[in-house]
Amino acid sequence: MTTAALLDLRDVSVSFDGFRAINGLSLTLAPGEMRAIVGPNGAGKTTMMDIITGKTRPDTGSVTFRGHDLTRLDEPAIAELGIGRKFQKPTVFEALSVWDNLLLALKGLRRPHRLLFARLTPDEIRRIEGLLATIRLGAESTRAAGGLSHGQKQWLEIGMLLAQEPDLLLVDEPVAGMTDAETAETAGLLREINRTRSVVVVEHDMDFVRALDVTVTVLHEGAVLAEGPLDTVSNDPRVIEVYLGR
Ligand SMILES: Nc1ncnc2c1ncn2[C@@H]1O[C@H](COP(=O)(O)OP(=O)(O)OP(=O)(O)O)[C@@H](O)[C@H]1O
């Protein structure tokens, strides 16, 4: 036996109205790994994330996380196992401060008014301060989240996910709409997060993917077309054809 995979998708397929959005997809993520997923529009990237998080059930194939069969679990149970997902659009509480957004996430509270009753322990304060440093928002902690830039909102939401201590973080197009400086900072941020957590990041921005400096999986028509270092896959004629041809 080789080292057990953290996440293992094997020969997964799913059809919508007869159309195979995922078609024999196999992908293995090692513990502690960060993986970038790229692929043209409609390649199946979002559907793959939906399958991992239990939003979509595969028709065939197996999906395991630390040996647990994810196809038998619902979304809350999968989140509970330690898989956190960051969607493309940030959904922070705009009227609340950055600090209170993190506090809510830390406490797992759903209703902001309950913050009034939240008593912070020194450990919780330390954790929020740690999150603020990670997400580059230490100087913005008292600011209303609604006043942050788009990129900062994305970071805040990443911080809110980290508050739940996921072992695996799934991130969907984090740098869409970001400035170049924010994009570069986000690559550094994810690399830092990857020191302690596994990460799967879907992204179209190749400069960003290059900065991540991790193994890249290219999806096409619901399956893996190529996998390896960015320079290798981007010189693969099949990949070039998919991106430039047709
Ligand atoms: N619920 C659904 N019903 C019908 N078709 C769907 C559904 N979800 C996805 N599809 C189809 O499956 C294919 C894969 O879609 P998916 O959104 O996973 O691709 P993607 O790689 O994430 O694309 P993009 O880069 O545009 O986000 C597409 O052709 C899409 O139209």
Written account of the structure:
35% of the residues lie in helices and 24% in strands. The chain has helices spanning 45-52, 75-81, 98-107, 122-134, 150-162, 180-193, 206-212, 230-234, 237-244; strands spanning 7-16, 19-29, 34-38, 60-65, 68-69, 83-86, 168-172, 198-202, 215-220, 223-228. The strands form 2 sheets. It has a 6-stranded mixed β-sheet, with helices on both faces. A 4-stranded antiparallel β-sheet has the order 2-1-4-5, with helices on one face. It is globular and about 55 Å long. It starts with 6 loop residues before the first strand and ends with a helix. The structure holds adenosine-5'-triphosphate (ATP). Adenosine-5'-triphosphate binds next to β2 and α1.
Compute the gyration radius: what is it? 19 Å
Please work out how many helical segments DSSP would assign. 9
Fraction in beta strands: 15-25%
Mean pLDDT: 92
Largest sheet: 6 strands, mixed
How would you sum up the global shape?
globular
Q: Supply the helix-strand structural class.
A: alpha/beta
The SSE order reads EEEHEEHEHHHEHEHEEHH
Strand runs, count? 10
Oligomer: single chain
Helix residue percentage: 25-40%
Distance between the termini: 41 Å
Ligand list? adenosine-5'-triphosphate
Note poorly predicted spans. Answer: none
- Record the strand order, biggest sheet: 6-7-8-3-9-10
Protein name: Urea short-chain amide or branched-chain amino acid transporter ATP-binding protein
Keywords: ATP-binding, Nucleotide-binding, Transport
GO molecular function: ATP binding
